Structure formats: structure tokens, C-alpha cells
């Protein structure tokens, strides 16, 4: 309808920025991933070793285990956040006294730095001196020890993530719900549709793009989680919460395993892209075809 | 019936708020206790208050510098990303550009990268490549504002796209027919309608930039250090200063809350679809 | 505590500096500084009390005297290494001074990252301060020398990890009587591992019986943090005669018993089981404890005895705001197996951990000469006493005799005496350029031992094999 030049001009700053700060570093990481490189090896230089790093990744039991717990973590955290976040966003759609106040409170966890969130949860959950193990023991006789129990540590990281990031989902979905035009809902009510039908046939399709965007963001952020978990459990007990972000951090920072760490990162990035692409195609594509 | 139900949500939200606030209350508890008190059987109720952590924080001039850097970087980055994201989404939503869906998907891949490994190339680029003479982007607020675009710009694009797609094209076409310029259409027709989405994007990009740690820790040294890097200074081999970290965090809640409440009003201000109907 | 110390230290230093300036001959610093007009030195270090003292007190003094500005960036533990390594590896030249912890100096030396302090000062005598001699430094400086005895780092912190015990509990008549009745011997700080376990078991039971928050020992046994790995390999294993992590540098870096190493030797396994038992009777938070929490656990009065890093010993013993056991802290050598003391005395082994750090000058620095001036400045004897009070660290021989330091020594139950007289018996991290690499490669297995997923014997076997594998892949083991 208008000149494409204007379209490209509007896109250009984004493309340029992402090229210089996103694509160029990626090319460098890709380059490093084909080398053996640890600055504290006998030979500290980069040595080209074909796809050896990638061959190792496929058979690296530790990495695969880390990938496994990460997928479980992301699944439980993101699904819970989506359900709770949607329910809360809907709850905010009605009018009630003190709504703005409650909304502000609900968004508070977002403004806490991950390193602080990790510290608070660590001090709340440390055996014997944390408030949660004490309450659980006094009230229910339940023994919470995230330094010993893998399952408990995993669960606490999931709950911490839900506490920290559900407000993001709520806010995004509020924005989507607020923007919905009222006509289809009024029409449906006139036609005698019940609440469940309205939800499945009207609300959900209309806010699907927003839901997908939110799920994507949470999915990829949860995959990259480092600071909070490092502070809370350090990846332990054992390797129970050594999520890929933490695993890569430990490979690259203390172990200075730049070559292999780069290969792992490329693989993780690739898997994330593929997973998101499949999700995107399966959820967005039907919408587009229906439109057309 | 409506009146009776008005207080039910209040009860519900009081309960939810309790869950949300408990860890934050605990942060406050940590901030008003000496470390040694944290190592005993805890009690939910505070009896003694120990203000020393706050006095220490207030007396520290470096921290004030960090606070200013954090405010400048997050605000600058949030405004930049929201603006560029809005422009990009308008282009993606309204123009028939070849390969635009692929471009849209590609932008988000920039956010997926595991950060630890990308620190090295970013460090090299900022210190050695992206420089003019003596001026390099390393350890500058501008540099951090630009670097944060790698994860915040894709976010802005992805949250704004549904908003812009949701604004009927007929509206701007009608305006064009009336002889409005592209700038006028964008600023006077589309922008106001996109306000809830823009407000949420602004808040959330601000939050991400405000909380970012790894990139800031590696790419800043003296001039552009942020609060999160300041917080991590208290995690040392000798000890972790829980109380001071908590006191700083309580302080950081204040500017964040102010910015939040300023922007939050715009989220609901977007109920302007009456205009669409008319 | 850091900031409180900073403020206190600054106030102290202001009055101190005023008094000192007159007494001291400033002409060397003024003249030497004149040639570096407009130079700003930049250093990176950890935000510990000794480093904060450099940043807040010594750096401003130096600037006033020489006109050379010193900016010190303080950061967290893991960031500090990463930033220094990135800078030196890439040759960026951001830093003129980097903090070198004792355990990483060998990696830096192997990569020729650091400027030779001895050599440069010999070549350029005009840079050498008349007030500085390398012989002023304690034996801790030996860790920062190469084979030719050249110094590469100026020590700023030095600590040992002693055995702390609660003097009030150990001298309580009721407890003493009960202990005597139960064990048939007098209650006194343990000399052997068996005695230590006996005391630990006794106090844990005592706490339980009397409904006290008291346990018999500390344990730095975090199940996901390198702190636990360090406690075992650097504090516990040596007391059983397993040195240098059980790796033999003379023998092709062997770690497994089959190849001549000791990492999975019977002694190593015995040491691990001994320590795991202590972990089980330590306060419950121990499974989440790094060095921070261990020190706080002891300061909160929750443990009767324990191995605690010396940098924390000072505030545990003297700071009322931080500690509930002020005045009740005794210091002793860690409990030992037979023959270990002899090994340590002859220099063949060591009986615990000697830690600390130094400032070095990266070869990539653009202001090496000015940086060397600063290093000599902070090494002066006159400046050490107040620095020792602020950070409970001693790196010069003369500091021990200062009356202020002597007074603190009394409060610390003789900790500084032990550092002076028996410091040589303690050892730093082994001289390995692959320190963090081998630690990180084996640590996940170690954490699995701690959670009980792998038995201790089997776990150490796996760790030894893993260590050899990592050393082979890095090229150290042929």
C-alpha cells in the first residue's frame, strides 16, 4: 500500500543493531566452537579440531543430564506461569477496590535482581536456619532439605522461578486482554455462548499471538537461567539443578573451556531455535491459513 | 449480585499478595539483622531492628554512582528498544516486505543465546573493534544501552507485534485517504492505540535491563558499573554480606516502584477501542 | 561489615596519615611520582576488607604523595578472575594491577601474564624505593616467585585455616566432667582425628540432650559449590598425609593409585569418610555452607569446634556486632595423622591451608613503572599495622612486633603467633597451572559423593580417573 522503502527504513535500525551486537558475536562463537581452546592448557592457543567438540557434545553424559533437568525445569516453570499468569490477568479484568494497588504489589518480584532473588530464597530455605524448613517442620512435620534432596531442590527452583516471573506473564496478558475489541464477546453472549465456549472460541484465538510471544520469552529466559540458581543451590545437590545455563557458566568461567563451551552453546542455541520454530509454526501457521 | 462480589476479589488478591510479599518481607528482615542473627532458629515476627546495614549503604558514595548508572542505562535502553521495536513492528505489520516473517522470527533468536559464551566476543568487540580513536564503547553507558538491545529489542518486537496487528489497518488507511502523512498516521493514530502494549513493553524492557548482571559485570569497569554488579561485590571469598545486599535491594525497590507506577497507568489507559467502533 | 570497616579505616587512616607524613621521608615518592604526571593506575580486586583498605586508604595516600591516581575496581570472586584473564589474554591493557589469589598464580606464570618485579627493579634502580626490600616480606611471598626466585606479586593478604574451638565450652566444669565420664580422658583440643570425632560426637549429643542449638563441628559441605571440594582437598586430605590433591607432579601428574597417584589411595578414602561423618553431625545448614556460612555458623555459637578460614577468625573473635563468641575463641593446629607433622616440618608435606593473595602487574599494562611504585608503596613496613587491624592479614615480618597487632593477637587467641611461628607448616594450593580446570572437572563427582549418589570409595576412584583424563586433554599428562 505504501512504499516499501519506508518499511525498510523503519526496520533498518533494528537490523543494524542486532547485526553488530547479535550476529557478529555469534559468528565468533561459531568459529571458536571448531577449535580446542583452553588458555590454561599446555598449548594455550586455538587449535582447529574440525567437529571434534560437537562429537563430544553428543556423547557428553553430563551435558545430556543437564539438558534433561533443564527441559523439566522449563516445562514445569513455564506451564505453571502461563496458567497462573492467565488466571491472574483475567482476575484483573474486573473492577474492584484497590485494583491498582494490588497490581503494583503483584509486579514487585519483577524488579528484584536475580542475584537477590537467589539470596532471599537461599536464606529462606537453608536447613535449620531458614524460615520455610522450620514452618514446614512445625506445621506438617515435613523435612525440607534442599542441600540433600534433589527433588526438593528442583521444586524450590521451579517455585522461585514462578514467584519471580509470573508477573511478567500477567502483565503481558493484561495488555493483550485490554486491547481486545468488545464486539465479538457481546455477540457471543447474545448468541447464548457459555463461559467455556467464549474462552476456547473467542478469547484464546484472539490472544494467541500474545500468549505465544510470552511463552517464547519465558521459555528462552528460563533456558538461560544462571544467577538465581547459582546463588540458591550452586547447581546442586550433586547435579540436580545444574541447568544448561549453569553448566555452560561453569564450563566457560572457572574452567576456561572456551572451545568446548562454545560448541555446547551453539548446540543449545540450535535446539532452542528448532524448538521455538516448531512451536511457532504449529501455533501461528493455522492462524495465518485461516485468515487467508 | 455485583455488589456482593466486589469484595471477593479483594480477599483473593489479599491472599495472593501475601504470597508475593512474603519473600520481599523476608528480604527486609534480612536487611535489619546482623548476619549472626540469621544463623539461629528463625521467627516470622521481627523483634529487634538493626539499622547499621542501611547506614552503611547510605554512606557509600560509589553505590549512589551505580544507582545513577543503572537508572540511565535501563531507562535509555527501555526507551530505545520500545521505540525501535514499535517502528519495526509497524513495518512488519503494515508493509508487504519480502521475508518479513523470517526476519520477525530471526530477531527473537538473538535473545536465545546462552550469555556466558557470548561475553568473550562482546568484550573483544567493545574494547577493540567498535572504537573510534581513543573512544571505545567498553565501560560506557552508551555501550551498555546498545548491548542490552540484543535481548531487549527482540523482546520489544515480540510483545508489540500482537498489539500492532490488533489495531485495524482500516484506521490508518482511512487517515491516509484523508491526506495524512506517514509520520502523522504513526504518531496520531497508531501510537495512541498501542499505548497499553507500549507501556507493558517499556516496563518489562526496563526490568530486564535493570536486573541484568552478567553482561554488565564483564563489560564495565569503572565508569558504567550498575547496581547489580555492585550487589555482587558483596559475594567474596571472605564472606557474603547478606544484610548489606538486602539493604541495597530494599533501596533499589524505591526508584523501580516510582517508575512502575508512572508507567502502569498507561496499561489500562488503552481502553480506547470505543473510537474504533465509532 | 565491609563498608563499616571502610569507614572506620578511613577515619583511622586520616589521623594516621597526618601523623605519619611528617615522620617519613617523602622525597623519593615525590620525585619518582613526578615523572608519571597524569597517569591513572587501574586495578581489579575482590571486595574483601584488605583490598578495600587499599582502595579507600592506601590509594588516596599514594595519590597525594605522588600525584598518581589509583582506581581500584572491586568485584565478586568469580568475576575478578574472569575479567583479569580476559584482559590479559586479549592484551587489552585495561588493568595495571590485578589481584592474584595464591591458587591462580601458577596459571598466570605459566602464561607469562605477569611482570617480573625483581627483574624490573634491578634493571631500573631509579624506580626502587629505599624503603622496600624483598626480605621484609613474610615467607608467604615465596608462593609468588618463579624458579629463578624472582617476585611476581606483592602480597596483600595472607591467612591460614586453623582449628578453632570454643574456650568457654572446653573449660566449662560441667561439660568437662561429662566428657571425662563418657570418654575417660580430659577435654582438650584434639590432636588426632579420632579425638576430634570423639569431641564432635560428644558436643552434638550434648546439644541434643540439653535442647541447645549446638553441634560438635562445622563442615564446609555445600553440595553444589567448590567450597566443599576445597575443604576436603586442601584442609582435610593433607592432615591424612594426602598432599597436592593426591596428584603427583613428579610422576607425569598421576592421580590414580595404579599410575602412582594418591587421589584414591586408602588414606584419601579414610580422610573422606572421616569428614563425611563430621558433616553428618554438623549443624544441618552445612550441606548448604560455603566459607561464609561456616564462619557465621561458628560466630553464631552453633559449633563447638571447626576448621575456619583465618580471614574470618579475626571478626569471629573480636567483632561484637558479627559474633556471639567474642572472647571465647581458641586457636590450635588441625588434628593430624601420624607422620604428618614430621612431613610438614621437613617441608615434604603440609598440614592445612595457607591462603592469600597479591597484586601483580600484567605485562599488557601501559603503566608498569608507576604500578611498581604503588606496589612498593603498599609494602612499606610503616603502613602495615593499621592494615592488619582492618583486614587481619600480615604480609611483612615486622608487622608481628607492632604493639597494636600484638594486642589484636591476644584477642584472637594467638592466631597471629600461629601465623608467624607455624605458618610454614601450612601450604598453599599446589603449584598447578590447571587449578580451576581439574577442580571443575572433578567437582560434579564430588558433589554426588556428598549427596550419597556415589559411595566415597567408588567416587574417589572416578575422580582420580577424571582428573587424569582432564590432565591428558589439557596436555599436561602424556
TrEMBL record, chain A:
Domain ABC transmembrane type-1 residue range list: 63-279
Membrane topology recorded in Swiss-Prot or TrEMBL: Multi-pass membrane protein
GO BP, sorted A to Z: transmembrane transport
Signal peptide segment: none
UniProt keywords, alphabetically: Membrane, Transmembrane, Transmembrane helix, Transport
InterPro entries xrefs: MetI-like, MetI-like_sf, Sugar_ABC_transporter
Transmembrane segment boundaries: 7-31, 63-88, 100-121, 198-220, 258-281
Assigned GO CC terms: plasma membrane
Predominant place of localization: membrane
Family listed: Belongs to the binding-protein-dependent transport system permease family.
Protein name listed in UniProt: Sugar ABC transporter permease
TrEMBL record, chain B:
Localisation per UniProt entry: Cell membrane
Domain ABC transmembrane type-1: 67-263
Sorted UniProt keywords: Cell membrane, Membrane, Sugar transport, Transmembrane, Transmembrane helix, Transport
GO annotation terms (biological process): transmembrane transport
GO cellular component: plasma membrane
First-listed, main subcellular location of the protein, grouped into a coarse class: membrane
Bilayer disposition of the protein: Multi-pass membrane protein
Coiled-coil segments: none
Residue stretches spanning the membrane: 7-28, 71-92, 112-130, 142-160, 242-263
Family assignment from sequence similarity: Belongs to the binding-protein-dependent transport system permease family. MalFG subfamily.
Function: Part of the ABC transporter complex MalEFGK involved in maltose/maltodextrin import. Probably responsible for the translocation of the substrate across the membrane.
Protein's UniProt name: Maltose/maltodextrin transport system permease protein MalG
Species annotation: Paracoccus alkanivorans
TrEMBL record, chain C:
Keywords from the named record: Signal
InterPro entries associated with the record: Bact_solute-bd_prot1, SBP
SUPFAM superfamilies: Periplasmic binding protein-like II
Primary residence: periplasm
Signal peptide coordinates: 1-23
Origin superkingdom: Bacteria
Pfam families per UniProt: SBP_bac_8 (PF13416)
Subcellular localization(s) per the UniProt record: Periplasm
Keyword Kinase: no
Any single Gene Ontology cellular-component annotation: periplasmic space
PANTHER family referenced in this protein's UniProt entry, alphabetically: ARABINOSE-BINDING PROTEIN-RELATED, DIACETYLCHITOBIOSE BINDING PROTEIN DASA
Family from the record: Belongs to the bacterial solute-binding protein 1 family.
Name of the protein in its database record: Extracellular solute-binding protein
